[in-house]
Amino acid sequence: AVLAGRGAEFLEVGWxxxxxxxxxxxxxxxxxxxxxxxxxxxxxxxVSRFLRERGVLLYxxxxxxxxxxxTDVSLIQPDVLAVDAYKWMLAPNGVGFAYFSPRLREVLxxxxxxxxxxxxxxxxxxxxxxxxxxxxSAEKYEGAMLPSALIYALAASVEMxxxxxxAAIEQRVLALAALARDRLRSLGARxxxxxxxxxxxxxxxxxxxxxxxxxxxxxxxxxxILVAARHGNLRVSTHFYNNEEDxxxxxxxxRLLQ
Length: 258
Prior knowledge:
The protein is an alpha/beta fold. It has 9 helices and 8 strands.
């Protein structure tokens, strides 16, 4: 709404039209590393390179990939990468993190600041005297007070994932997703966007003809199986803590409920 008030226009396009939609008037692209409804996984590194060559900023929402898939900002080189850590990062609601590129930090002033935004934030006696002098780091964008307890919880999750290894987690997550796809196909489900590499992700969207997927998701919950209904699809997402027995239970329950 703020940008619209300043004359910015927003254009939503499908993936087949994406590259053609980038013009000399394009200033920024907002994109998810993995689509939360269907699992679409765009070629982020290729997209980032394409946009950098044209001077277009790239904002990435990595909520649906960070913690499940290897997410390397040094390889992707986005301008902003933001993560709500409640999902694959296994953190409580209310905590997340963001990366801001050096080139963006040079030109983007904070819209909201907190006490750590000023480079002298530890000099409490002088903190509220004069105009703030912002840090060069992304801390200058930290508004208000940080949720310390939630950050400690996120840190514990990050430490666990680093101990397991991001590459090992991705390998396990994608292997379970492949098994889930096989079982869903055997049940007669139509898998939406089921082609690698753009849909090689842990988010699976399945359609069951003549079934109400919202009701199906509720029934599965009664069997202690948590899935989601999204846009007429049953969304199944497997993480590294799941196993083959979980998929067998999903298979059995779906056969009973069809």
